[in-house]
Amino acid sequence: MAYRVLGRAGPAQPRRARRLLFAFTLSLSCTYLCYSLLCCCDDLGQSRLLGAPRCLRGPGAGGQKLLQESRPCDPSGPTPGEPGAPSAPAAGAPSPRLAGANHSGSPKLGTKRLPQALIVGVKKGGTRAVLEFIRVHPDVRALGTEPHFFDRNYGRGLDWYRSLMPRTLESQITLEKTPSYFVTQEAPRRIFNMSRDTKLIVVVRNPVTRAISDYTQTLSKKPDIPTFEGLSFRNRTLGLVDVSWNAIRIGMYALHLESWLRYFPLAQIHFVSGERLITDPAGEMGRVQDFLGIKRLITDKHFYFNKTKGFPCLKKTESSLLPRCLGKSKGRTHVQIDPEVIDQLREFYRPYNIKFYETVGQDFRWE
Ligand SMILES: Nc1ncnc2c1ncn2[C@@H]1O[C@H](COP(=O)(O)OS(=O)(=O)O)[C@@H](OP(=O)(O)O)[C@H]1O
């Protein structure tokens, strides 16, 4: 039986087998072709449609030339955080990538240069806000941390200082901020010796509010310190203010300014009003850009007033939907101070303020 069936199928078998083989080969080829096309499309799709960055996955992914041309992959993605990064880190610590910081392409692009501009003060004046606002400008690259070179780390030398700086292109300005420079006796001479052309920015604020802000910060770290009143006066009944207390001394702006004017002409020092920086950040930043000789690119479109925080927050780009506010340590609720103490301190500062207004030719309206 079987033989008969086979026997009947006999003459057609080679043709059918050939057809089957042909169909099988054809379907195999088609499958392979589709598979190859799909894989290829997927690659293109990822890099073109998703805009995946050209980056290196690790050592060995390319030669030295490739390393310079491609950006290293950042496995963590964009760094979350706020512009108000902690100040006064260990000198030499790498600058954290802060929101608002501009990126000039490859980190290897450009040269590390000594700063051409410095925010030299004053502590609690609003220096972090100015730094974070100005570094959005494409012509400015700033060190995110405070290097304290001209006060604490001068002995390390200029090469060390330069090594901390971000790389800049020829057209970009290198900037750093260390608010304690303003009250450091040696700072003006040391900065002058680095470069007599250094542009100096000082953010000033009502010295009474500044002192309370300074005290509030210290209290947050050392809750056992004496009261503000106790530290402010040598004899409160006699109205004798303790000028040896740093929180008081820093606010005697006219005194500190004298040391700077021995080395730098007034035109080389720009004063930012800490008060206007909050009420009109775009106006203040406009003047900072003029002073630095760069185009006014940071405008009112970069700011959004956050009512809950009570401060302007920064939009990295004009169209950015997510404004970033400075950190929790910026814009703290101040310790309540007896209004009489405030009046006494206002009286104490009055002559220093008036002298300061006369010297700089601007009335900051702190009275
Ligand atoms: N936009 C914005 N957001 C938050 N805070 C702002 C802003 N602009 C100015 N300020 C004021 O900056 C004060 C802190 O000053 P500094 O950054 O110079 O402080 S520090 O010396 O670096 O510690 C900080 O002082 P306090 O209010 O006492 O915390 C703020 O009043």
TrEMBL record:
InterPro entries: NST/OST, P-loop_NTPase, Sulfotransferase_dom. 3'-phosphoadenylyl sulfate binds at residues 124-128, 205, 213, 330-334. Keywords: Disulfide bond, Glycoprotein, Golgi apparatus, Membrane, Signal-anchor, Transferase, Transmembrane, Transmembrane helix. GO terms for cellular component: Golgi membrane. Disulfide bonds join 313-325. It is found in: Golgi apparatus membrane. Residues 115-350 form the Sulfotransferase domain. It is a single-pass type II membrane protein. The active site is at residue 124. GO terms for molecular function: [heparan sulfate]-glucosamine 3-sulfotransferase activity. The chain crosses the membrane at residues 20-38. Its EC number is 2.8.2.-. Residues 61-110 are annotated as: Disordered. Residues 84-101 have a biased composition (Low complexity). This is Sulfotransferase.
